[in-house]
What does this fold into?
Amino acid sequence: MNIGDVAARSGVPPKTIRYYEDIGLVRPERSANGYRAFRETDVHKLTFLGRARALGFSIENCRALLALWEDDRRASAEVKRIASIHLEEIDRKIAELGEMRETLADLVDACAGDLRPDCPIIHSLTSGSAPRDA
Amino acid sequence: MNIGDVAARSGVPPKTIRYYEDIGLVRPERSANGYRAFRETDVHKLTFLGRARALGFSIENCRALLALWEDDRRASAEVKRIASIHLEEIDRKIAELGEMRETLADLVDACAGDLRPDCPIIHSLTSGSAPRDA
DNA sequence: CCTTGACCTTCCACCTGCTGGAACCCCTAC
DNA sequence: GTAGGGGTTCCAGCAGGTGGAAGGTCAAGG
It folds into this structure.
C-alpha cells in the first residue's frame, strides 16, 4: 500500500506519516521503486495515532500508548495512568483559558467600542486593574 | 536601566525582552558599553506586553494593541474588535478542550486500571468507539 | 592591581508538531 | 512521448520563546 492510500484510510496526511516515520512511530517497508510499502497494521497504527492526537496526547505519550497497544501483556493501569495525567493537564488548560476568558469578556463588555480613544481594555493592560467597578 | 531591572519590574524575562527587541516590539537605546538602556516607557510597554500575552493575545495582536496603546487618537472600537476576535478564539479552544475532556474522562472512568491488559482506552483508540454502553 | 562574581552581549540550537515547497523519480494512460 | 498524478528527498518556516556557549563589563574585596 502506498502512502496516499494509507493517508486516505487512516486520516493522517502523507506529510505527517512521513514525519511519524522520521521520529520512529511507524516503520513501513520499502518497495523496489523506493516507495514506502505499508501493511494493514501500519494503517491501524496510524489510525490509532490520529485518534490519540485528536485527544490531545503528545507525541511522546502517543509513543508510549502505541507501545502499550502493541503489548498483549500490558497492564491497563499504565494506560490509565497516562490518560489520567493527560486529563489533568487538559483540566489545567481549560481552567487557564477559562480565567482568560472571564477577564477578557469583562473587558470587552466594558469597552464602548466607538470612535473615542478611552478604552477599558487598554487601560487594564496598562494598569493591571480589571474593570470590576466603574 | 539595564535589562535585569526591567525584567524584574515588568515581569518579562531578559531572554524574552531581547526576543521582543528582535522582533521589533521594543526599541531600547544603547549605553556606551553596549548594554541596552531602557526608559520608563519601555518598562510600561513590557508590562503591557506581559499582561496582553497573559491574556493569550498573539504576538501580532500584541503588536497591534501596542500601536493602539501608543495612539492617543485610537478608536476603542478597534481595540474591542481585536479583543472580541481573540475572545471567540478562546471560546473555540475551550470548546475543543471540553470535548477532549469529556471523551477522555469517560475512557479513564471506564478503565479498570489494574494488571489486566483489557483496556477501554486502548480499545477506543483502536476502534474509534466511545465506551458509552457496556 | 588583580580577581571574583554578577551582570551584560551575541549567536546558535532546540523545543512541538507539523506544513509548504523545490527538485526530482516513477508509473500509467493516451 | 508526454501529460498527469503519484511518489521521493531535503530544507525552511510557523509560534514564542528557552538554554547554553563564548566572551565583554563593572563594582567590591583582598
